[in-house]
Amino acid sequence: MAAIKNFKLAMLLCSKGAQIIRMILSTRLSNFIAILRTYIALRLFAFIVIIFMLIKFIAINYNKNNFIELLLLRLTEHIVMTPKSKTAKSTTLIIERQALDHPENTNNQQDVHIAGGDHKGIVINKHAVAGTIITR
């Protein structure tokens, strides 16, 4: 009789223990799922923010209407800046477009300097710079 009572008590404890373990596991699993959902939502939000920032950056730097014109400009001609005079506060420049298919523009590659950085693609005429008096 005592063995049966002990068995019933053991079964009751096992079933209660199993319920408690299931409750703990389900709570931890739900917490894990909630944390995972939050992590995924934050990553998705960061991705969307980065995409919108890139779109904004592209929209600021390249107008949609002028994008094709800008590409064609880079393929067929370049912009040459020739300094005329310089004061303490300003520099006067002549800005010209020169076609790349003319021999006088393509033969003298040592005569020009192609700028980089913020002024990338702008060609500076070295002969004109050497011929002008520029003071600082």
From TrEMBL:
Domain of life here?
Answer: Eukaryota
Query: What is the official name of this protein in its record?
Result: Uncharacterized protein
Which key words tag this protein in UniProt? Membrane, Transmembrane, Transmembrane helix
Give the transmembrane region(s): 32-55
